[in-house]
């Protein structure tokens, strides 16, 4: 059975959309991990969203941590989840564990521009 097809364009069926993103190879999954930019960054760079990276400062837009602004600590491409500093859940025994957030529930406030490749990507139109 073929799990992922490059020729697949789109479907209105949610189960097919989930299957596409779940079975996507990592170089495509990275593009699916795009996060919206703030209004200032949109005007500055001329882009609506960019793939999130470790070190970016993001704002949580949805959920119990709504409004929290913090840095991205880890990205899991296989699960398509982002871990943000300070977003934790407290277990019954009192231990804290990092809580993952889907990239669609975030907004980038400040970009990590340490890498030359990322600067070139943002300069491209």
Descriptive notes:
The chain is α+β, with helices and mostly antiparallel strands and 125 residues long. The protein has one domain (14-123): SH3 type barrels. 26% of the residues lie in helices and 32% in strands. It contains 4 helices and 7 strands; from the N terminus they run ααβαββββββα. It has helices spanning 14-23, 26-32, 39-45, 116-123, and strands spanning 34-37, 49-51, 57-60, 69-76, 81-90, 96-101, 106-110. Strands 2-1-7-3-4-5-6 form a 7-stranded mixed beta sheet. Strand 5 and strand 6 (96-101) form a beta hairpin. The longest helix has 10 residues, at 14-23. The radius of gyration is 16 Å and the shape is globular.
Q: What secondary-structure arrangement, pairings included, does this model have?
A:
Blueprint: H1 14-23, H2 26-32, E1 34-37, H3 39-45, E2 49-51, E3 57-60, E4 69-76, E5 81-90, E6 96-101, E7 106-110, H4 116-123
Parallel strand pairs: 1-7
Antiparallel strand pairs: 1-2, 3-4, 3-7, 4-5, 5-6
Helix share bin:
25-40%
Secondary-structure element order, N to C: HHEHEEEEEEH
Tell me the CATH architecture: Roll
Major sheet details: 7 strands, mixed
Indicate the overall shape.
globular
Number of helices: 4
Structural class: alpha+beta
State the CATH topology: SH3 type barrels
Q: Any idea how many domains? A: 1
For the record, the CATH class is Mainly Beta
